[in-house]
Specification:
The structure is a single chain. The protein is an alpha/beta fold. The protein contains eight helices and nine strands. The chain has a seven-stranded mixed β-sheet with strand order 3-2-1-4-7-5-8, sandwiched between helices. A two-stranded parallel sheet has the order 6-9. α3 runs antiparallel to α6 and α5 runs parallel beside α8.
């Protein structure tokens, strides 16, 4: 398919992001429009009590129904099912997944697209651990946990990707559909399994250095039980891949 015919569907799962959503949508629109890419933003709100869906409806009036697609759900049902739900309605042949809380800056999106085109990669992953990538807003303990988790995964699974738990990625649509359909993990480890399965299926992976910024507004959704879940999932993947 010719480059100018590509369309990019950006999936934004949301829960209590009423402050962040208008900003992230404005930034996505700005950077994609400046780069001349055809795109749509699919907002998958899981019953946010803070009025996120109402904000999304207002944004739809501003940017148009062809740019802002609303696919809400009644309650929190998990990230994997949010992607499946969004994929059903995506018109693009490429899919971006990213967080709506401004921890992933939309300015990096054109770099993902350029990287994908270099070698027609099946997926491109944003990495905090290559080049000038990094993390802002985390204390030493959280950085240590993240680095440790990444090191253990590299050691046991050899995934040929430097950042396994990040959630800022670009996929060919059929690749994401296949990966989501084959992943069994939940929560924090879901993104890691996506990369491991990608390696298992022989998909090509490109990487772009990104800067991750901790939540601008609202509270982090990373719970204490996530570390235990991560260890369990790591052992499961080590045994099955």
């Amino acid at each position: 398919m010719a480059e100018e015919n590509n369309k990019y569907s950006i999936l934004l799962p949301t829960y209590n992001e009423v402050e962040n959503l208008p900003i992230v949508v404005w930034l996505i629109n700005r950077h994609m429009t400046e780069a001349g890419h055809d795109f749509e933003i699919i907002v998958i709100d899981d019953g946010s009590p803070d009025g996120t869906l109402d904000a999304a409806k207002q944004l739809q009036k501003i940017y148009g129904e062809n740019k802002i697609v609303l696919r809400p759900r009644e309650k929190k049902l998990g990230l994997g099912t949010a992607y499946i739900h969004g994929l059903k309605h995506a018109k693009g042949n490429f899919i971006f997944i990213m967080d709506a809380d401004l921890s992933h800056h939309p300015k990096f999106i054109p770099q993902f697209i350029e990287k994908q085109r270099e070698r027609d990669y099946d997926l491109v992953s944003g990495s905090r651990y290559i080049g000038d990538g990094g993390v802002h807003g985390w204390d030493f303990k959280r950085k240590l946990i993240s680095r440790g988790a990444n090191f253990l995964t590299q050691l046991l699974l050899r995934p040929r990707a430097s950042d396994l738990t990040g959630s800022f990625r670009l996929y060919k649509k059929h690749v994401l559909e296949n990966l989501v359909g084959n992943c069994v993990s939940k929560g924090y480890v879901f993104q890691m399994e996506m990369i491991i399965r990608a390696r298992q299926f022989g998909y090509t992976i490109g990487e772009v250095p990104i800067t991750f910024v901790d939540r601008v507004y609202g509270e982090s959704k990373l719970g204490g039980s996530e570390i235990f879940q991560f260890a369990n999932a790591l052992l499961y993947l080590f045994a099955t891949t």
